[in-house]
Design goal:
Helix content is 54%, strand content 11%. The protein has 124 residues and is mostly helical. The protein has two domains: 6-67, Winged helix-like DNA-binding domain superfamily/Winged helix DNA-binding domain (Arc Repressor Mutant, subunit A, Orthogonal Bundle); 71-117, no CATH class. The chain has a three-stranded antiparallel β-sheet. A hairpin with a 2-residue loop joins strand 2 and strand 3. Helix 1 crosses helix 2 (23-34) and helix 2 (23-34) crosses helix 3. It is elongated, with a radius of gyration of 16 Å.
Length: 124
C-alpha cells in the first residue's frame, strides 16, 4: 500500500467519517478548510483513485468516492514504515500508543493491534 500524503490523509479522514462522498462534499470537508481550489481537490481525488487509495462509484449519476482501505490498514502500514525508518525497529510501535486518538474507536484499535501483530508481506 502506498503511503498517503498529508493532503491525501485529509481526504481519507473525511471519507472514513462518512462515505461515499462526491467531489463537492470532499471539497467542503477537506479542501475549503485548507484553502484548496475545487480543481485542486478534483486532481487530488483523481490521483488517489490512480494510487488505489480510494475507489470511484456512482450514486444517482454522480461520481462518489470511498476509501479502499480501513483506517487501521492505512495506519498500520504507516506505523510500520515510521517504526522502521525513524527508529530502526524491526517491530512496529504498539497499537496502544494510539488509543487516545480521537480518530480511532475501540474497533479500530482492535483491528490495528491485529494488523500490527501480523508479519508483513515478504517477511518469512
Amino acid at each position: 500500500m502506498e503511503k498517503p500524503s498529508p493532503s491525501e490523509m485529509l481526504v481519507l479522514k473525511s471519507l472514513w467519517s462518512q462515505s461515499p462522498l462526491g467531489t463537492r462534499e470532499i471539497q467542503e470537508r477537506a479542501g475549503t478548510p485548507q484553502g484548496w481550489a475545487y480543481s485542486t481537490t478534483r486532481t487530488l481525488i483523481a490521483r488517489m483513485v490512480e494510487k488505489g487509495l480510494i475507489e470511484k462509484g456512482d450514486a444517482h449519476g454522480l461520481a462518489v468516492f470511498a476509501p479502499k482501505a480501513t483506517k487501521a490498514q492505512v495506519l498500520s502500514a504507516m506505523i510500520r514504515s515510521f517504526s522502521a525508518q525513524i527508529f530502526d525497529l524491526d517491530e512496529p510501535l504498539p497499537a496502544s500508543a494510539f488509543a487516545s486518538s480521537p480518530l480511532l474507536d475501540p474497533a479500530d484499535i482492535a483491528e490495528l493491534e491485529r494488523l500490527l501483530a501480523e508479519k508483513p508481506e515478504g517477511d518469512a
